[in-house]
Amino acid sequence: MIELKNIERSYKHAVGETWVLRRINITVRPGEFITLMGPSGAGKSTLLNVLAMLDDGWRGEYWLDHEPIHVMNRKQRSEVARRKIGMVFQSFHLLDDLTVAENIELPLSYKNMPRSERQALVADTLDRFQIVGKKDLYPSQLSGGQQQIVGVARAVIHKPELLLADEPTGNLHSAQAAEVMQLFTELNRAGTTIVQVSHSIENARFGSRIIELRDGWMTPENETPA
Ligand SMILES: Nc1ncnc2c1ncn2[C@@H]1O[C@H](COP(=O)(O)OP(=O)(O)OP(=O)(O)O)[C@@H](O)[C@H]1O
């Protein structure tokens, strides 16, 4: 599903260049649930942002479902990302002045979908994530755990093949974190491929494979031959 070949990312500054990702080679098969781990500053979020197509400043090859992302321009990448990727953030990234239902509907606004169909999908999603009773509330009226469940619902309403999550439980208590990980497990069983960044070995246990980064390099036991 994902093939990364020799992905490299650096930041240039006045006195030189800092390397953040070095020769990253990763193959992710459909249906895998991967956890990216490693110390602070190892490059985990940077790699996730490359996968999410939120960053364009990298070199190397990125294939998604055999599509060469590395040769695409920004517009083409956005189009692929909207179609295939859902993203969950540590700080939820919900829009404060939209209700739960309106937040969840957001990814559908990019699609050419009749209003009635959009509303049916929102209703299904509210039901599936058991948040029907919260649909008219605003994010500030929800607990952190509830906000993240809305964040996950919004990320998957358009049925993406790939769910990317950057420390999705970083701002949650352990019971809330377990609930979000349980949701991920169910989505994964239903066929969604997942790549999450996490510091938590408990969270990693919900997944099928750990990839460890250190100072921008993959640790040798993870390395997939280029
Ligand atoms: N815009 C930027 N300009 C310069 N350096 C950056 C920029 N963004 C990230 N970096 C550097 O890249 C390195 C990796 O950052 P990244 O956020 O990917 O690490 P991480 O493994 O996700 O860390 P953490 O677990 O603390 O979130 C860090 O040294 C960081 O300072």
UniProtKB/TrEMBL annotation:
Which keywords fit this entry according to its UniProt record?
ATP-binding, Lipoprotein, Nucleotide-binding, Transport
Q: Which GO terms describe its molecular function?
A: ATP binding; ATP hydrolysis activity; transmembrane transporter activity
State if DNA-binding is listed as a keyword.
no
Q: What's the name of the protein?
A: ABC-type lipoprotein export system, ATPase component
Q: Which residues form the signal peptide?
A: none
Looking at the UniProt record for this protein, which Gene Ontology cellular component terms does it annotate, in alphabetical order?
membrane protein complex; plasma membrane
Q: Which family does it belong to?
A: Belongs to the ABC transporter superfamily. Macrolide exporter (TC 3.A.1.122) family.
Give start-end ranges for the coiled-coil region(s).
Answer: none
Outline the extent of the ABC transporter domain: 2-226
- Lineage: superkingdom: Bacteria
